[in-house]
Amino acid sequence: MVATEPTAYKVIGTRPVRPDGVDKVTGRAEYGADVAPPGALFGRLKRSPHAHARIKRIDASRALALEGVKAVVTYADFPTIEDGIADIGETTSNFRWVLDNVLASSKALYFGHAVAAVCATDPHIAEDALELIDVEYEVLPPVLNVHDAMADGAPLLHEEMRTSELLSRFVPGPERGARPSNVASHLRLERGNVDEGFAGADVIVEGEFETAMTHQGYIEPQNGTAFWNRDGDLTVWVSTQGPFSVREQLSKILRLPLSKVRVVPTEIGGGFGGKLPVYMEPVAAIMSRITGQPVKMNMSRTEVFTATGPTSATYVRAKIGAKRDGTIVAGEAYLAYEAGAYPGSPAGAGAMCMFGSYDIPNQRVDAYDVVSNKPKVQAYRAPGAPQGTFATESLIDELAERLEMDKMELRLKNVAREGTRRTDGAPFGAIGAEEVMVAARDSPHYRSELAGEHTGRGVSMGFWFNAGLESSAYASTNSDGTVSLVLGSVDIGGQRAALAMQFAEAMGLPYEVIKPQVVDTDSIGFTGVTGGSRTTFATGWAVYEAAQDLRRRLEERAARIWEADRSAVSYGDDGVIRGPDGKQFTFAEICGRLPGTGGMLQGHADVSPTTVGPAFGCHVVDVKVDPETGKVDILRYTAVQDVGQAIHPSYVEGQIQGGAVQGIGMALNEEYIYSADGRLVNASFLDYRMPVANDVPMIDCILVEVPNPGHPYGVRGVGEVPIVPPLAAVANAIHDAIGVRVRRLPASPTELLRESLGD
Hints:
eight-stranded mixed beta sheet, 25% strand, single chain
């Protein structure tokens, strides 16, 4: 359902079949685990059984003596690297920490931390060899949450680390803490006068909120195959969201020139931000160099849970003040986000997003990045925003209750509009927050009556700023009237189709004649990661500019063929080139003439757009709670979102539905559970409870289209926002159903019964 009048386009807004669909449903598509170079060896990783332990000694002699074993490597086999900021797409890290996460140097910092690797002629031999690698540990006490990690006298993960005061999201300030600490950084964002704001408030609501560590839950485990040939060139095949990011990480970690590293992205079975850093690729590369053979590595599902990046567990303390008429005058928050074993939690993004839906004149947010003995966290769909928004939207609901106002009317009274300044001080451009709220308020769902005992309705807003970054696209004409569209953006959610549609629209051509393909890092200009809701926007800009370039070149060729003045020739939006005296070529006709008139043509573009369109969503959910067991059932769910312009509405709806279900999982079921000594005890899909089809109803989508003026087709990213509102929406619905205000998620039966009993 579209809530605004669509712009008339020929291709954009339609629902064609995706070009990769047949290969995927028939099993022909090649994923990372399908890569099998001739002579490939099989690699496996030995992992720490301890959450925090000093590595005293590693002895691989018994493993190397096993027939079929070709190499064993540890951290010592890697070159020494210097400090430097690694841009991993949606997060940053120090290259030293990236390598230390790949293979531990002096300490194992979480249960499952890799400490050594082996490769052999057979995967079973490699598995057996792991048992023959002897590691001597000095076990240390772990810290498993932000409270313990920040306490005085807490065991230190990194003895040299001191708290950085951040001047911005990423830049360390001139001051660092005097003493070693598990707090990697502190960021303060402030505007207005918060103390005066609260002094003038008639009603103040406040609370403490906690969320658990959760995993992206992609269906395909991590993988990596590497071949370091005798010329010193390294080729890596991998399922990744960012082949150019992988190339840079490998270049720095292995001390190879970028030109010596080629990354081939395979098809990818989900990522959601979790498939941006390297894990096995550097290890496979080192073992390939030692053996002279390709080395293939795949993770098990247990390894995915224990040793790849989930999102942060968090603690948030927040306060909101308002006048009696509902005008919000002040907001304040304290956020402590777990980074896992190495700095780099999304606390900064959480700070910038949590008040983003509202015009609050006085704000102050303190965000802390805290290390703990858990796997290094990675991006997960709007990283950091769901947790902070859970606090804000819960308090907004409580404020509406205190003021006896309708929940949506209170939100509308304080909605952010064009010109409103965010927490970080940046003003909004043209945004659709108000249109989203109105569509949610007027939706059939919100206006319907609830039926049944112990049922409740919750609402929540969500905001994500989206991203631009660099993208490239090349478009080559073919003599049969088709176009080969070459892209550097990995296709996760239908990007090939969405980008081909934008190119077809720009050229005035049918979608079916555009043949998109994703290529390796040697075959296209630099392109940022598929993440941050940037691809349809930024690479969409690139395909649009490539189309404009190709149109100009075709006009020039037509003028040469007709021996006409260049200014008299124009390429029309209907795909027809017109010249003097009624002369014209269809696109197919001129493509047929290209080989004999100077050769085929290519349009290309390299862009880095900054005119990003922020996005907002509002979710409405009905639940039923069993007061005896604490079980929560989702009865009805509606997600409203400003998508700017829905390029392919089916894929837009799929992104929104998928994000909503992941948020429902965070709200009700999903959490990492650790024993007291730091062992992850639910590292399987059986024990880590993700929602399945019969846990949720159909997610109804209402697409609001407030075009982004910074894009030729009005595109705003859509993939991040839908995971932001569900946590608070579900928690607010539970409160509406049984009167229990949930402050800790997931709201599992155990948690709800604990809250109900006041324990």
